[in-house]
Amino acid sequence: MKLEAATFVRLRRLAPVVDDVLGAGEVEHADQAVGLASLAQLCSQLFDAYHRQHPDEIAQVRLDALESQ
């Protein structure tokens, strides 16, 4: 699934938040928490869009994950 330009820009803008949190091993500031919430919302929207286009693939990946537990 190709990303729209605006979505790509948002992901690039939010990527440093993940890097900061991973580097520190914690959420240190409120702006990081807000950035993570924005990233979570964007990821959810991307998942929903992908799932609408490829429901069988998502179902198979979920089954594979359950079987590997």
The global form is: flat
Query: How is the main sheet built?
Result: none
By DSSP (H or I, 4+ residues per run), the number of helices equals: 3
Helical content stands at: over 70%
Q: Return the structural class.
A: mainly alpha
Walk me through the topology:
Elements (H helix, E strand, L loop, with lengths): L4 H20 L5 H24 L1 H13 L2
Helix pairs in contact: 1-2, 2-3
Polypeptide structure, described:
By secondary structure, the protein is mostly helical. The protein has one domain. 83% of the residues lie in helices and 0% in strands. It has helices spanning 5-24, 30-53, 55-67. Helix 1 crosses helix 2 (30-53) and helix 2 (30-53) crosses helix 3.
Brief sketch in words of this structure:
By secondary structure, the chain is mainly α. The chain has helices at 5-24, 30-53, 55-67. It has one domain (5-67).
Q: Keyphrases for this structure?
A:
mainly alpha; single chain; 69 residues
